[in-house]
Amino acid sequence: MKFAVCSLALLASASAFAPAAVNTRSTSLQMSLKNDMANFGKFALAGAIAVGVAAAPAQAITKSEINQLSYLQVKGTGLANRCPEVIGEDSITPKAGARFSEMCIEPKAWAVEEDIGKGGKTEKKFVNSKVMTRQTYTLDGIEGKIESVGGNLVLTEQEGIDYAATTVQLPGGERVPFLFTVKDLVAKGNAGSFKPGFQMGGDFNTPSYRTGLFLDPKGRGGTTGYDMAQGLPGLQSGEEGDDDLFKENNKTFDVTQGRIEMEVNKVNAEESEIGGVFVATQLGDTDMGSKVPKKILSKGIFYARIE
Hints:
- 15% of the residues lie in helices and 37% in strands.
- It is built from 5 helices and 11 strands; from the N terminus they run H-H-H-H-E-E-E-E-E-E-E-E-H-E-E-E.
- Strands 1-3-4-7-8-9-10-11 form an 8-stranded antiparallel barrel.
- A hairpin with a 2-residue loop joins strand 3 and strand 4 (152-161).
- The longest helix has 15 residues, at 2-16.
- The radius of gyration is 22 Å and the shape is elongated.
- The chain starts with a helix and ends with a strand.
C-alpha cells in the first residue's frame, strides 16, 4: 500500500509539472466582447469544450487518491494547486436544503484583450498569455447553498478561498495583474439535476486587486499614507496634467463585475462529486483607479461535492 501511494505521489508530481498542451488554434482565444458577457461566456464555454480544456485522463487524479497522500508527499509537487477530477457519468438530484462544498476552480489557460492593428484598422482580440504567478492561483474550499427555482438549480457562493492574486504576461512582456475570484457568485442552471451536459452560469464581484492599506512607491494609499507625492506641489485647479495627478493621488477601491459559465461533464453519484469545465471573464487591476483595467479570459476545470 505504501509503495502504491508513493508511486502515485511520484506520478502526480511529474504530471503536475508537465507542460500544458499548446493549442495551435488561436481563434478560440480571439473572441470579441462586443456582445454582452452572458452570450460571450456561452460561446467561450463551447470553445473550451471543443479544444479539450480538461487534463488528459492519464494525468487525472481523483479526490480519494489525493486523500491517501500525506502532507510530505504533496509538499513541493504542485498537487495542492490542482483540482481533483471525477470519474463517471451518473446523475445527482439535490434534495431540499442541499449544499455544495469543497468546490475547486483551476484555470489552465489565460488570454488578455488587446487592440490589434492590421491594415490600418484596429480591433479588439484576446491574446494568449502566460501565467507568472507560482502555483497558488487555484480557488479551493468554496461552499454555498443549492436551491431549485422554477425547476432549475441555482448555486450561491457563500464562503471559502474564493480569490487568488494572479499575474499573466503578454507576448510583448507586459504583465497584467488581476484578482481571480468568484466572490458572491450566483450561478443559474438549465436543469434540476447534475448530469453530463448540465450548464450553469452567473455574475460575480471582483474586488480591487489592492486594498486600502497598500502604499504606492511614493507613499500614497487609500486609507493611509500621503495625500500626494512628496516633493510635488499641491493640485492647482485648471493646471495642465491635474487630471493625471488626481487619478494617481485619489486612490479608490474598485469593485467590478465578472461572469463565469460552467458545464458539468463528469458525475459520480456514489461519491456525490461533479466535475467539468469553465470559462470566466473579468476585469484586471485598475492600480487603485489610476488606469483602465484590461479584460481577462480564464479557462479551466472545476470540481465540487454535493451534500
